[in-house]
Write a structure and sequence with these properties.
The protein is mainly alpha-helical. It is built from 7 helices and 3 strands; from the N terminus they run H-H-E-H-H-E-E-H-H-H.
Length: 123
C-alpha cells in the first residue's frame, strides 16, 4: 500500500463521522492533559453518548489512552498512528471538503475519492 492510499484508508476506518474526527483532533491539540467526558461534551457541544462511544472506539483503536474511569488523553499507541493523525489533521485543515466527503461517501465511491484526495508533492 502506498502512502497515498494509507491516509484515506485510515480516515475512513477510524472516523465514522466528522464528529469523531473533530473529537480526536481536539484531543490531539490538547494532548498534555486528560479530559473527562463531561468536559469534552461541553467543549465539543456534542451529546454525552456521541463523545463516550467515540472515546471507547479511539481507546480500542490505540489513538486515545484511558486515564482512570472517566478521563481520556490523546496518546497514540505507536509512532505510525501519531503520524497518521498528524496527516489527517493537516488534510482536514487544508482540504476539509475532501476529508468530509471521504468520511461520508458510500463504499463504492471510496476509490474515486481516494484518487482525488492524493496530494501533489511540494516543490
Amino acid at each position: 500500500m502506498s502512502e497515498d492510499d494509507e491516509l484515506p484508508m485510515f480516515i475512513r476506518q477510524r472516523f465514522p463521522s466528522v464528529w469523531a474526527l473533530e473529537i480526536v483532533l481536539f484531543l490531539r491539540t490538547r494532548a498534555e492533559r486528560g479530559w473527562q467526558v463531561d468536559d469534552l461534551v461541553k467543549e465539543m457541544r456534542a451529546s454525552r453518548a456521541l463523545v463516550a462511544v467515540n472515546l471507547e472506539n479511539f481507546v480500542s483503536a490505540g489513538l486515545v489512552l484511558r486515564e482512570g474511569e472517566d478521563r481520556f488523553r490523546f496518546a497514540p499507541a505507536n509512532p505510525c498512528l501519531a503520524e497518521l493523525c498528524r496527516r489527517a489533521a493537516e488534510a482536514y485543515r487544508d482540504r476539509p471538503v475532501a476529508v468530509i466527503n471521504l468520511i461520508a461517501a458510500p463504499e463504492e465511491r471510496l476509490q474515486q475519492l481516494a484518487d482525488a484526495f492524493r496530494f501533489k508533492p511540494r516543490r
